[in-house]
Amino acid sequence: MYCIEDRFLMSKCMPEWILTLEEQGWYPYVTGTSVIGIKYKDGILMAADTGGSYGSTLRYKSVERMKVIGKHSLLGASGEISDFQEILRYLDELILYDNMWDDGNSLGPKEIHNYLNRVMYNRRNKFNPLWNSLVLGGVKNGNKYLGVVTMLGAHYADNHVATGFGNHLAVPILRSEWKEGMSFEEAVKLLEKCLLVLLYRDRSSINKFQIAKITEEGATIYPAYSLKTFWGFSAFQNPGQFAEGTW
Amino acid sequence: MDPLHDMNLDAPHSMGTTIIGVSYDGGVVLGADSRTSTFSCWFRVISALPPPGMYVANRASDKITQLTENVYVCRSGSAADTQVVSDYVRYFLHQHTIQLGQPSTVKVAANLIRMLSYQNKNMLQAGLIVGGWDKYDGGQIYSVPLGGTILKQPFAIGGSGSSYLYGFMDQAWKEGMSKDEAEKLVVKAASLAMARDGASGGVIRTVIINADGVTRNFYPGDTHPLWHDELEAQNSLLDVLSSGGAACPEPMST
Hints:
The complex is a heterodimer of chains A (247) and B (254).
Chain A: H1 7-13, H2 21-24, E1 30-32, E2 35-40, E3 43-49, E4 52-54, E5 57-60, E6 66-69, E7 73-80, H3 81-100, H4 109-125, E8 132-140, E9 143-149, E10 155-157, E11 160-162, H5 165-177, H6 184-201, E12 209-215, E13 219-221
Helix pairs in contact in A: 5-6
Chain B: E1 19-24, E2 27-32, E3 36-37, E4 56-58, E5 64-66, E6 71-77, H1 79-100, H2 106-119, E7 126-134, E8 138-144, E9 151-153, E10 155-158, H3 166-172, H4 179-196, E11 204-210, E12 213-219, H5 237-242
Antiparallel strand pairs in B: 1-2, 1-10, 2-11, 3-4, 5-6, 6-7, 7-8, 8-9, 11-12
């Protein structure tokens, strides 16, 4: 009887379901952090920073993590950028074939969400995931739709969604302050509130954001911009005054 | 819930090189060091292997490799992986050029590099910078790091030595440089990286690609500027003493 305890040897001869993904050689390298999405009066608003981290280094600072899909949808992604780029290639093909029918119909956000769910879940079952959390939002025939698909193939839809750190920091704010039928201005302000919190508290975030909008008329990805940060709390001035060495 | 929290955030490991690509109005300048060090091995093999990552196997390698007449690639990471990837891409581009009837675009070359890097991401260790010139979009630089992401950038840095250049490039790179300014920047940056990164060193090679063609330059160690704590090179201590430069230290007694 032999017992192989050397995990390197195991990685060469044992099935995928024994080894962790890292042991099989699947690592995320260039990653994007949170994406936030909310429904508002005219459609969907989505926000993400333009950073591509490489481990702990903030390596790339102009990565567009939200793209327009077809006529009715916006896709935002966090996680491995190369996998997001591959998903965009799959969707290009999907939309092309849809257009080739030339029948006046076009894939809406619900259909794209479902397609992405199938792709992500099937990859997960083969232990070869696309390392992303996706936010898919859109409007078709007056109906607003906002959903998420994760790298494990879990999917859901809601009035407000977020990925990564956004789940922990932005969603509580949105649960408290989101309301039905917000104006564009109110919605942008709410997203910016979340983005600022993420900037303060998420190590992988950078101060360069993009907001994207999709309405019945069409989609707009606004140019990248930075937010002012606040450091003027008196408590920040000399925190070690009465407790030397404190942090 | 989100696997982003499960991963080791500091996972990616550096590669023994410094590679740089800078675009300017009219073309691109690619640069690299020339050191190839031995790769660390996790097998417990009983043999006289050189210690991992410490022996300089080649002190004058050429890491800037031609893909087509107008497109070159800077290679970092595993020497074997990057050689084989660039060989495949050179082969594909050769056929593509014949079919197209004109020189391939930089974008196509970069996307072929991306395709191989992405499809073999779990086996390859290759960080590549593709640079070139074509008549449609002029000089372009594309970064293809580990994992197979493709990103078009005005300038790019890669390899283990690049860690020392993020701050430098943030400050020193400016929009609208001339060819000479761009090359000076590349040489200065590579030189700074080589001063601090043990895995980078040797000579600096640059390749300038523009509408007029390709120019290769070679900057050996004695032509680099001296940085902090570095001394002027001498032939021997005897020369230092005889020139009477430094005060001759008194012999110590007791």
